[in-house]
Specification:
single chain; alpha/beta; Rossmann fold; Elongation Factor Tu (Ef-tu), domain 3; 4 domains; seven-stranded antiparallel beta sheet; six-stranded mixed beta sheet; 25 strands; elongated
Amino acid sequence: MPHDSDLISTDIDAYLAEHENKDLLRLLTCGSVDDGKSTLIGRLLHDSQLIYEDQMADLEADSATMGSAGERVDLALLMDGLKAEREQGITIDVAYRYFSTSRRKFIIADTPGHEQYTRNMVTGASTCELAVVLVDARHGVVEQTRRHSFIVSLLGIRDVVVAVNKMDLVGWSEGAFDDIRGCYQELAADLDLADPYFLPMSALLGDNVVDAGHNLDWFDGPPLMEYLETVDVATDVDLDHLRLPVQMVQRPDQDFRGFAGTVASGVLRPGDEVVALPSGMRSTVERIVTFDGDLEVAGPGRAVTVTLADEIDVSRGDLLVRDGAPPNRAHEVDATIVWMDTEPMEPGRQYLLRSATGQSSASVTSIRHRVDVNTLAERPAAALGLNDIARCAISTDRELLFDPYDTNRQTGSFVLVDRLSNATVGAGMVIEASSGWDRQPDAGLVRHASEISSDERSARFGQHPCTVLLTGLTAAGKSTIATSLERRLFDQGRATIRLDGENVRLGISRDLGFSAQERSENLRRVAEVARLVNNQGLIAVAALVAPKEDIRARARNLIGPDRFVEVFVDTPLEVCRERDPHGLYEAAERGEIPQFPGVSATYDQPTDMDLRVDTSTQSVDDCVDAILSLLNERGFLRG
């Protein structure tokens, strides 16, 4: 069990190589005050023979003067290093210990249990892969257990050991253990903590810490140390989506230019084609350089320096990704924020946002809700105080490159920094790009009514306003139909406006790309314009791909179901490919255009459409005739 090897005396180089190649597990202990977190870690190290003799001598001396374990050595003092911690018998700051066994290396963080030190726990847990949640067998699942389990879930830690400690104080009762397990399983289901490992133990006496002991014969699972040595925490490692944040550009001489960083996800090999974001420039990996020599492959967690075949512009804060698997891009995101400053956070104040992909100026535009970590209830909040956790909308001046935190912890996390003191004031986890559909306008704004009634406008224009949305795949014929429909309406004396998707992207949506979130925002903007012109009595004709049915439904509700007409241009995909004048489908198939509906992204065929047309079997005039007939039937056209 302890880290010993015959190689240490016979072949030091082989010993070091053996040690270096062990995998590393980062874990934390958490739970309520006095549940025995520090004692557990001390027992883990003591029974594994991982405490040096001089440390043990100091521990015995300290136990005699300030210990709380009676005649025994107080192993908790091994972790409670601050004077205030030893005086009070509690953990205040995060204490780290590094140790190694014959199977694995460990970094263990002992985090505080007090609510007032929530930020300390978040700091300790932010890099961990496994959490040991201690529960006092006498008290069961309490508020602090719920709080810390929520934070464990929030930070994306999916491997959880529920250590029911102090079983000696409940007579080693299997019934007490079963009751706690049942209660925690309900909590785990609410927090999406899948399949926790439940373990009865006594950290004070050592049962089920390193050895099974003799008091828990009814439990047949492995003790804690064996479980930690064998648990597989790499099952959810993302090997498909390359993310290499560039942390430094290395230029030691005129012949070498490398981009240093740690692979956050995916696998990288020499010869791979990569895309540098945000520029979008492409190149091929020439070498993967490390201190110990070049690599043929580099995976998640590996620190490397990459050289490229081409002299493209790559800077610190850029992101190297694989073609066809881009991250999200947005200036506005929704994120969970843990506030870490005594000065309250109020929306509108400017901060620096630092992430794996660089720095930008940022502000919290709104607080969606604050989370009561004791009950998990969502509460309204005008500001955030120390240790508060909330979902917030954040706006940045520089486009963020990110993945949702639950997908990638490295590219989905950030910190907020005070611009004056340079102190870290908040930690954030990105949920998604903010949706303009849900954003509330400033409370001080008032909608001004027109003095012209809708009846007056209808009498003037001889029509009732509506919006015709033509939706379908690229090259289905939407824009052609929209242009012809606009001409026919104009020739009839109707007042219309055409909102062509490509024209819109050259103007009000020129800041948007083609991700799912940006397509949603594009449709929202078009719908807002359509509603405004409908209110002025005009007929709006919009032609967009609009691939998501739920987003089209939101546009219908925004404009008003009584004046929204959805026309599905149901041209078969193979016909659209043949017609495509710009080769977009072929480019999408080569991976050059990500998230392209019909190829690399889905298109939701309408189920609530008002009319279906097909330009592969109908002429443009036939399609326009069908739309005009429908508008007449619905009473939108008069005379």
